[in-house]
Design brief:
Helices cover 41% and strands 13% of the residues. It is α/β, with parallel strands linked by helices and 379 residues long. The protein has 2 domains: 2-8 and 257-378, Aspartate Aminotransferase, domain 1; 14-255, Aspartate Aminotransferase, domain 2. A 7-stranded mixed sheet has the order 2-8-7-6-5-3-4, with helices on both faces. Strands 9-10-12 form a 3-stranded antiparallel sheet. Strands 1-11 form a two-stranded parallel sheet. Helix 6 (157-167) links the parallel strand 5 and strand 6. It binds pyridoxal-5'-phosphate (PLP).
């Protein structure tokens, strides 16, 4: 099988598996207890917290909140500050955010928080000026993703953060760095943000675990209430193995970033060059038009629907996707492509191929050959 859907999820890195093993077995204690097995589990979490804080530029380990994944971190990153102190702070988001951000903003809107959605250009980028224009006195959180999950387009987050603060120095800037973290340097300082969301399973850790990393002193209203773990910011018994695995995977991904960039970059160049040679009318949505993550290729073959192409590719042992499948697996019109002003007929043809840490440069050739064969058969 040729797996080309690493943005959906990527295989577990061996470093994560090895780090997790003791906590799935002998060191099974609940970290919130008073005995030795609990202490071992708690030590593992606090060591993971220190390492993730260092990796993502948090001033203090306690500025890391472990969560149940990227979705939950996004919820907490927006709702946490907006609802803190029984407030109803406003949010400003870009039109191409992940559903975890968009739906949280909608939820906050239903609670009475002012919500503004900033449009994007034809490559899916929000401009600092448009974001600043949407910020006003009521704005508490601005959330713009580091890179888009469908197209891989990179947002000018640091410039957006600076412009937003100029418009209102009290705003907090959150970024969803779930897709960016595997191939770009990601930390609070570099991105100039106050809150940052990461997810384990996109960097080679287990699913169902993530983190929200913050600058010091940010008050959060929890979105999950209960026993008061994570200083009351996120209740629930910790997934010890998951947390340890996420941090091991994140460290391995950072260590592996240069090699990843070379191999994946080579695979994508070969894929796009060979597919263009074999199917001259193929259209790459982003191409050289904007900065994009090295692992993403987003394209359409005129006259062939994404659904048809993906089903045929699956039949040929190739796993790819169209950026937006809903829970049932059916393809929906992508809000990202709609915001980029792509006509619905073209959006319905768009396919996303994403390479990952297990990709070799040669996989780019195989991917192009597979797509070209399917297109040839269909035509
Ligand atoms: C940009 C982005 N944000 C958030 C998420 C949600 O993360 P999780 O699957 O860990 O809930 C994803 C996953 O698809 C994503 O790509």
């Amino acid at each position: 099988m040729l797996y080309l859907d690493h943005a959906a999820t990527t295989p577990m890195r061996p470093e994560a598996r090895e780090a997790m093993a003791p906590y799935l077995d002998a060191d099974f204690g609940n970290p919130s207890g008073l005995h030795a097995p609990s202490r071992r589990a708690k030590d593992a979490i606090e060591s993971a917290r220190e390492r993730l804080a260092a990796l993502l530029g948090a001033a203090h380990p306690l500025d890391v909140v472990f969560t149940g994944g990227g979705t939950e971190s996004d919820n907490l990153g927006l709702a946490g500050p907006c609802l803190a102190g029984s407030g109803r702070g406003g949010v400003v988001i870009s039109a191409v955010e992940h559903e975890a951000v968009i739906e949280t903003a909608r939820f906050l809107g239903r609670l009475g928080c002012p919500v503004r959605v900033v449009p994007v250009d034809r490559f899916g980028r929000a401009t600092p000026g448009d974001v600043a224009a949407a910020v006003d006195e009521s704005t508490r959180v601005v959330s713009v993703m580091a890179a888009n999950n469908e197209t891989g387009v990179i947002q000018p987050v640091a410039e957006i953060a600076a412009a937003a603060r100029e418009a209102n120095p009290a705003v907090l800037v959150h970024t969803d760095a779930v897709q960016a973290m595997v191939s770009l340097p990601v930390n609070l300082g570099l991105l100039g943000v106050d809150l940052l969301t990461v997810a384990s399973h996109k960097v080679g850790g287990p699913k169902g675990v993530g983190a929200l990393v913050m600058r010091p002193g940010i008050e959060l209203e929890p979105v999950i209430h209960g026993g008061g773990q994570e200083l009351g910011r996120r209740s629930g018994t910790h997934d010890v193995a998951g947390i340890v695995g996420m941090v091991a995977a994140a460290e391995a991904a950072v260590f592996d970033r240069d090699r990843f960039g070379r191999d994946v970059g080579e695979a994508r160049s070969r894929f796009e060059a060979k597919l263009t040679a074999a199917v001259p009318d193929v259209v790459f949505t982003i191409g050289a038009g904007a900065d994009r993550l090295v692992q993403h290729s987003h394209f359409r073959v005129p006259g062939i629907s994404a659904e048809t192409l993906l089903i045929r590719l699956d039949g040929a042992g190739v796993a790819a996707s169209a950026g937006s499948a809903c829970q049932s697996g059916a393809l929906e019109m992508s809000h990202v492509l709609a915001a980029m002003d792509l006509p619905a007929e073209e959006a319905a043809e768009c396919v996303r191929i994403t390479f990952g840490w297990t990709t070799s440069p040669h996989d780019g050739d195989s991917a192009a050959a597979a797509v070209a064969t399917v297109v040839g058969d269909l035509r």
